[in-house]
Amino acid sequence: SSRSRRGSNAIGRHHHHQTPARRMTPAATMGLSSGNIRRGAFILFEGVDRCGKSTQCKLLVQSLQSRGIEAELWRYPDRTTAIGQMIDKYLQSKEDMNDAAIHLL
Predict the structure, then answer these.
(1) What is the pTM of this model?
(2) How confident is the model at residue 16 (pLDDT cuts 50, 70, 90)?
(3) Which of 31, 35, 47, 95 could be disulfide-bonded to 51 (CB atoms 3.0-4.6 Å)?
(4) Contact 69, 18 (CB under 8 A)
C-alpha cells in the first residue's frame, strides 16, 4: 500500500525472527554477564476450556524439536500444586471463590 509504515502502530504488522537453538556450554556461560546471549520466544496459547490449546502446544513443541530447535512445554495452572488445584476447582465450578481473590492466584 502507499501508506507509510512510519508512525503506524504494530497491530497488523508481522515480524518473523528466527532464533537459532543454543545449548549452554561452559564457553557460552562465560559471556552471560556481557549480554551476548539471545533470549528465546515465550509463546502463549489462550482459549476457552477444551478448545485444543494443549494439543496445539504439544504439536508446536514437537514441530520445533523435529527441526532441531530447543523447546519446552509449560502449563499453567499446574494442577498438581495446591494453588493449581484451587484454580481448577474454581474453573470447574466445584468451589465458590471471590472473583478478586481467584484473579490474584
Answers:
(1) 0.49
(2) very low
(3) 47
(4) no
pLDDT digits (tens, 9 = 90+) for 71-104: 999 987 788 899 989 888 888 888 888 888 888 8
Distance (Å, whole) CA 41 – CA 82: 28
Contacts 24+ apart (CB under 8 A), 79-84: none
Cβ distance 19 to 41 under 8 Å? yes
Q: Residue ranges per domain, the chain?
A: 41-74, 78-105
Taking a C-beta distance cutoff of 8 angstroms, is the pair 73, 57 a contact? yes
Residue 71: count other Cβ atoms within 10 Å of its Cβ: 17
Secondary structure of the chain as H, E, C letters: CCCCCCCCCCCCCCCCCCCCCCCCCHHHHCCHHHCCCCCCCCCCCCCCCCCCHHHHHHHHHHHHHHCCCCCCCCCCCCCCCHHHHHHHHHHCCCCCCCHHHHHHC
